[in-house]
Fold this protein.
Amino acid sequence: MMEYEIKDISLADKGLRRINWASGFMPVLGSIRKKFKEEKALEGTSISACLHVTTETANLMISLKAAGADVALCASNPLSTQDDVAAALVKEFGIPVFAAHGEDKESYYHHIRKTLEHGHDITMDDGADLLSTLHKGYKSEIDKVIGGTEETTTGVIRLRSMARRGLLGYPVIAVNDSMTKYLFDNRYGTGQSTIDGILRSTNALIAGSNFVVVGYGWCGRGVAKRAKGMGAKVIVAEADPIKALEAAMEGFQVMPISQAAKIGDIFISVTGDKWVITGKEIQKMKDNVIIGNSGHFNVEIKLEDLEEMSVEKKEVRENLTQFKLSDGRKINLLGGGRLVNLSCAEGHPAMVMDMSFANQAYAAVYLKQNARGLEKQVYTLPKEIDRDIARVKLETMGIEIDELTDEQMKYLDSWGEGT
Ligand SMILES: NC(=O)c1ccc[n+]([C@@H]2O[C@H](COP(=O)([O-])OP(=O)(O)OC[C@H]3O[C@@H](n4cnc5c(N)ncnc54)[C@H](O)[C@@H]3O)[C@@H](O)[C@H]2O)c1
């Protein structure tokens, strides 16, 4: 009997319909699935995956299984699990899932351990919680792992920190750092789905609002661009001078969060950093503002401060908590401070996850074939794989591009010709 722990198996039909719908927008992953299935590229390999349990992740899991892998899945965030998807993976595809929407911290880590115990020749992370659980609690198992993959910026930061300190036990592929991942998923995926989360939870009018984006990295520039496109007056708060300059030249107002706090109607932090919006900033905010976070962990908004400053707290809409300050001002928090796009909406569209998860599938096969020659470091997939994914994506979008002539290639490789 297959072991699993999910909320409600009777949701499987709905989950299956949604997984199939997403599949229609994931042609690159579909073509890789076919290729890896024929090659049985992951035959006999166990993969423990800790990813957001969404329709797109389901398609990745199905692809890995088709390639011969023995996969198990848990959530990479307690609020991002789609229970119908978890049910369909178990019932329709025979994939063990250990995840439930809204689970507490204890259950979240219990599920990570259950997934690890299923088998872990390869670990697959979004935020590095599974890998760090393995490193902390299963030390004798570390040497048996072939390698790992990591989906997001915050996870890559954690892994690089471990590698610098000599603590990383096996090689990891930073899937986030493929261009076909961060340039598209982080920018267009987070951009659109963050706005989607805000709208679903508040039905706020973006047009004419003062919309503050904290962090103008790949995700932040996506959120800022989409908010601007909907008519918001966008303010960017940044700590890096180059990024701040880019934001200024893109036409955004740039100022420190301490100043933006007084002006904003909607605030989204997406820095991957800790405590970027604290009590100090909240104290300056207008009545009835909306605040949320799209960064990986729920540490960007200092929730302890918000709790401490409040005299009353209530759920005013789905995924929206209203805090009342002692002077009567109301602060509306999206998704409990967890990533807005996954806690208040469905996460990134399948069309963009197609490329991220094509990278994940390639990374697993790359590890199986090459890990023995790799150090205990963080690696990026070879550029050729990145370009291949882009090429196939373009094809599936019906877009043709130019090809360099031999003469042009020779010229671009030469130095002799000048004025
Ligand atoms: N919501 C999602 O679905 C989703 C998707 C991809 C990535 N992420 C997460 O979003 C976060 C950002 O990812 P990214 O790829 O944009 O990273 P990035 O490194 O490209 O950008 C982060 C930016 O934040 C700035 N920053 C850091 N601390 C700051 C502070 N205190 N004040 C102002 N600016 C500050 C940095 O200078 C940088 O420009 C990460 O946690 C990542 O894991 C979330």
